[in-house]
Amino acid sequence: MTREVRSIDAALPVGEALAQYFGEGQMHRAYPVLRGNAVIGMADRAMLAAFSVGTVGDACGAASPVFALAGENCRVVATRLARHRPERLPVVKDAQSLALVGLVARSDLIKPSLAHFDEEEKRERMRGLPWRVS
């Protein structure tokens, strides 16, 4: 999970958000949208471009945001990503406050598995080494 997350204020006009977040200096494909301190959704270029008038909050609509809770394990978060198909999920403190604490991407979920695979591969290589007893 990434703890330092750049987010978009829900009150920001769509045109300004497209220019600031999805212009030439674009850093990410999607950003969490906050109203106050609460996550109300994720915004990407396509969503904002389709909603050319109004604010980013208006573009997010009234639908409940999809998010991960800080205490959830990788399997639960991976299932949620697979089910809803976003690239990344905002991580919130709890379901009541929806206070943003981080962002988890699909690539973040692969890291623990990759570390386990690397460890197993090293262990297998060590088993295959010929041992000499002097």
Strand order of the largest sheet: 1-2-3
Mean pLDDT: 89
The biggest beta sheet, please? 3 strands, mixed
- β-sheet strand percentage: 15-25%
Instruction: Report helical residue fraction.
Output: 25-40%
> What is the terminal separation in angstroms?
49 Å
Low-confidence stretches: none
Radius of gyration: 20 Å
Order of helices and strands: EHEEHHEHEEH
Shape type: elongated
Q: Structural class, judged by helices and strands?
A: alpha/beta
Task: State the helix count.
Answer: 5
Overall number of strands:
6
Quick structural overview:
The chain is of the alpha/beta class. The chain is 40% helix and 21% strand.
Write the SSE topology.
Elements: E1 8-9, H1 14-21, E2 30-35, E3 38-44, H2 45-50, H3 56-60, E4 68-69, H4 74-84, E5 88-92, E6 100-105, H5 106-128
Parallel strand pairs: 1-2, 4-5
Antiparallel strand pairs: 2-3, 5-6
